[in-house]
Design a protein that fits this description.
- Helix content is 40%, strand content 17%.
- It has helices spanning 13-26, 34-41, 46-59, 78-91, 132-135, 137-145, 152-172, 207-223, 275-294, 305-309, 323-326, 331-350, 352-358, 375-386; strands at 63-67, 72-76, 97-104, 108-114, 120-126, 180-184, 187-191, 201-203, 226-227, 236-244, 253-261, 268-269, 396-397, 411-412.
- The longest helix has 21 residues, at 152-172.
- The chain is globular and about 75 Å long.
- The structure holds adenosine-5'-diphosphate and magnesium ion.
- Magnesium ion binds at residues 105, 234-235, 263.
C-alpha cells in the first residue's frame, strides 16, 4: 500500500477526533462499536456529527466498517494509522511536506520528507504483514493462534518503537547511524544519510579496508551487547568523506569510506538463545558479498561468536541490550515481534522474487528472479521508475557521488486542524 496524503487537507478537526477515537477503541476492541467512538471522540455535535465524520473517514478508507454477528463496528486501516502518525509529526513540526519514496522494502516504505525549514529527512513507515497477509498461509495461522495480537498494525508499531529505541541508543553511543528525530505509532523520522547502500556499489579502491571497517563496526555493536540480525549490503550505507591534508601542497583529496548502519527492528541481544546463529549469519553475509562483488576474501577466519561474546561490556562499552525491557516493551511483546519478523524471513526464503522486486532490486549475480505479476508490485515499480530511482543496481563507483534527495516533488501536507 502506498501513502496517499491527498485526503488529508479535507479532514476537519472533528474528523481527526473521530479517527483518533477509532484508534483509541482499537486498543481493546477488534471492532470498535459506534457508541464507544461517540464517547471517545467527545464531540459536542452528538451522534449525527460523529456519523458524518465516520462517513468521510470511511470514504477515504481511513476506517472500515465491519459487519459481525454480534455487532457492527469499525476498525482502523493502515491508511488511517498513516494519517494519525503524519498528523502527529506535522503538529510537532517534524514534517511539513512529503516527497517521493526512496526505498520500498516489503516491510516498510521509506519516504523523503521535509520539515518547515526545508531540511530533508527520512520517514520510515513500518508495514509488517503487507505481503504475507495476502499471500502466505503461515502468517494467517499465526494471526489465528494469537488473537490478542491479531493486528499487524500493532506489530508494525512495536517494530517502529523498537527501531527508534535502538537508533537513539546507538546514536548516543557514537555508532554511525542516522540521527533519530521523532517517532509516532508505526513510523520513525531520522536524518537522511546521503550515501548509497553497499548493494549499489560496484567497485571500491580498497575492499580489504572497507571489509575491515564493516567487521570493526559489527564488533562494536557486539561490545554493546547487540547483534544486528540483518547486517547485509542493503542495511549498510557507504558514506564518502572527502578530506584534504593541510600539509599536502598539491591539495590531494583523500576519500574515506564510512559505513552507516540502518534497519534495527530485528536486533537481538548477544545473549539471545540463537545469538550464535544470527552472529554467524551476519558475518557470512558480509563475507559472501565481498567475495561475489569485490572478489575479496579475508585471510583470517572469523570473527567467532565464542570469542566476541567475551568482549561484551568490556573496554567501557555500555550494554544496550537491556534497553528494550527498560523502555516498557515487555518480553511478550518482543517475542511477538520476533515471531513476525522470523516469519518474514521464512517467506523471503520461500519467495525471494516478491521481496526482491519490492526492493527495486533488479539484478543478482546468480539468481534467476521471476517477476511477481502482482498489481501492487507493478504499481511500486512504476512509482520507482517515476522517481527515476534505480535502487539495487550496482551502479556506483566510489569517487562519483550521486545525491539522494532532490528538492523537487515534495508535496506540502495540508492539515486544516491545529488542535
Ligand atoms: P526495510 O526494513 O524495509 O529493509 P530499511 O530501513 O532497511 O527498511 O530501508 C530500506 C532502504 O531505504 C535502505 O536500503 C536505504 O536504501 C533506504 N534508507 C533507509 N533509511 C535511510 C536513511 N536514513 N537515509 C538514506 N537512505 C535510507
Ligand atoms: Mg533493510
Amino acid at each position: 500500500m502506498k501513502l496517499d496524503t491527498r485526503a488529508m487537507r479535507h479532514l476537519t478537526a472533528e474528523d481527526w477526533k473521530v479517527l483518533a477515537a477509532v484508534e483509541q477503541g482499537t486498543k481493546n476492541h477488534e471492532l470498535v462499536p459506534l457508541p464507544l467512538i461517540e464517547r471517545f471522540s467527545r464531540l459536542k455535535g452528538g451522534s449525527s456529527l460523529v456519523s458524518k465524520c465516520i462517513s468521510t473517514l470511511a470514504k477515504s478508507s481511513l476506517i472500515a466498517k465491519m459487519k459481525e454477528a454480534k455487532y457492527d463496528g469499525y476498525r482502523l486501516t493502515y491508511g488511517g494509522l498513516d494519517y494519525l502518525a503524519l498528523h502527529s509529526h506535522a503538529q510537532k513540526n517534524h514534517i511539513y511536506s512529503v516527497g517521493s519514496r526512496v526505498g520500498v522494502g516489503k516491510e516498510s516504505d521509506i519516504m523523503i520528507v521535509a520539515d518547515h525549514t526545508g531540511a530533508q529527512q527520512i520517514l520510515k513507515i513500518h508495514r509488517l504483514g503487507r505481503i504475507s497477509f495476502r499471500t502466505v498461509k503461515t502468517n494467517r495461522d499465526y494471526l489465528r493462534k494469537n488473537p490478542s495480537n491479531s493486528s499487524w498494525m500493532y506489530l508494525s508499531t512495536l517494530a517502529a518503537r523498537k527501531e527508534f529505541l535502538f537508533l537513539s541508543a546507538l546514536h548516543s553511543a557514537g555508532i554511525p547511524v542516522p540521527t533519530p528525530i521523532a517517532h509516532s505509532r508505526h513510523t520513525i523520522i531520522m536524518s537522511l544519510v546521503d550515501a548509497p547502500p553497499l548493494r549499489q556499489i560496484s567497485s571500491v579502491p580498497d575492499p580489504a579496508s572497507l571489509y575491515a571497517s564493516l567487521i570493526e563496526l559489527y564488533l562494536r555493536l557486539a561490545k554493546h551487547g547487540l547483534i544486528h540480525g540483518d547486517y547485509n549490503e542493503f542495511n549498510i550505507l557507504i558514506r564518502e568523506d572527502v578530506s584534504t591534508n593541510p600539509d599536502d601542497d598539491d591539495g590531494t583529496e583523500t576519500i574515506t569510506l564510512t559505513p552507516v548502519v540502518i534497519d534495527f527492528p530485528q536486533m537481538v541481544s548477544m545473549e539471545h538463545v540463537n545469538a550464535e546463529m544470527y552472529f554467524d549469519r551476519d558475518v557470512n553475509c558480509i563475507k559472501t558479498f565481498f567475495e561475489r562483488r569485490f572478489h575479496f576474501k579475508a585471510t583470517t577466519p572469523g570473527p567467532f561468536y565464542k570469542d566476541v561474546r567475551k568482549t561484551v561490556g568490556r573496554d567501557g562499552f555500555q550494554r544496550l541490550d537491556a534497553a528494550l525491557e527498560a523502555s516498557g516493551i515487555t518480553k511478550k511483546m518482543a517475542k511477538d515481534l520476533e515471531a513476525a519478523i522470523r516469519q518474514h524471513e521464512e517467506e523471503k526464503k520461500q519467495n525471494p522474487s516478491a521481496y526482491e522486486s519490492g526492493d527495486g532490486d533488479e539484478e543478482d549475480d546468480d539468481e534467476d528472479d521471476d517477476e511477481d505479476e502482482d498489481e501492487e508490485d507493478e504499481e511500486e515499480q512504476q512509482q520507482q521508475e517515476g522517481a527515476g530511482d534505480k535502487e539495487g543496481e550496482p551502479q556506483i563507483i566510489i569517487g562519483s557521488k550521486a545525491p539522494l534527495g532532490s528538492e523537487e516533488g515534495l508535496e506540502k501536507l495540508s492539515i486544516n486542524d491545529k488542535t
